[in-house]
Amino acid sequence: MKKILFLIFLSGLLFGCSKDKFNNTNPFLPNYNFSIDVNKNLPSYSGLNFTGNAVKAYPAKGPSRGIIIFNAGGTYNAWDGACPNQDLTTCSTLILSGSNANCACGNENYNLFTGQSTGKQYSLKQYRVEINGDIIRVYN
Hints:
The protein has one helix at residues 2-16; strands at residues 35-39, 54-57, 67-71, 76-80, 94-97, 100-103, 108-111, 126-132, 135-139.
């Protein structure tokens, strides 16, 4: 009996844990399976070479409002381009404003370093980022 309980416990540890604790679930924004490579040497993305700059990119089969890639100084953050605290509507597209993103619908202001907005339930929906030289790969 002890062996059976030990095996159940051990299998729970092995299969119940994930080394990738990434969670970007948001009830207002769909989960898209996408990948996009952005080359910082291209003129439209060259701003990403400097801390505090952000650009929008539109991956094929990705978020309908695009993604925001932000140079956070030593690392890059990638966020969904839609307001995270409301349904997708015509005004729920985030607008870049320096190191912030603003949502016109709810008059919300999100910090691109943290993804947070004071007093809001959901932060910006974050995506994974990999750096390979001058290429920034964003995926979900």
